[in-house]
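wait is this the right file?? whatever heres the structure
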């Protein structure tokens, strides 16, 4: 019997191949079907992986940095800095819209 993978599953399996230690052991639960929801959704998998194995101190520092980020130069530079921090923290755009707007310069 041939098993067919969706592109979402393929992405998850590619990441699982690079895991080691406790994360590799954790990934066995997914591969054994005990967390099917994570095998078929790359988004759910990546959020759960990040949440499960994140460095809490680093996470808190990034949130603090994002909260105090202010536009000092161009909008493009500010937007890039904001998006990089947001990506590192792991939250979606809707979560941080107010912070983004508050960090913009007044005209």
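ok assuming it is, sequence goes like this
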């Amino acid at each position: 019997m041939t098993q067919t993978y969706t592109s979402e599953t393929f992405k998850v399996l590619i990441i699982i191949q690079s895991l080691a230690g406790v994360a590799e052991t954790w990934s066995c639960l997914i591969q054994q079907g005990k967390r099917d929801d994570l095998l078929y959704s790359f988004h759910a998998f990546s959020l759960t992986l990040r949440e499960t194995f994140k460095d809490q101190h680093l996470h808190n520092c990034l949130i603090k940095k994002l909260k105090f980020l202010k536009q000092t130069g161009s909008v493009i530079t500010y937007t890039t800095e904001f998006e990089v921090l947001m990506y590192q923290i792991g939250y979606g755009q809707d979560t941080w819209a107010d912070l983004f707007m508050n960090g913009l310069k007044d005209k």
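The chain has a mean pLDDT of 84. so i think its the right one actually
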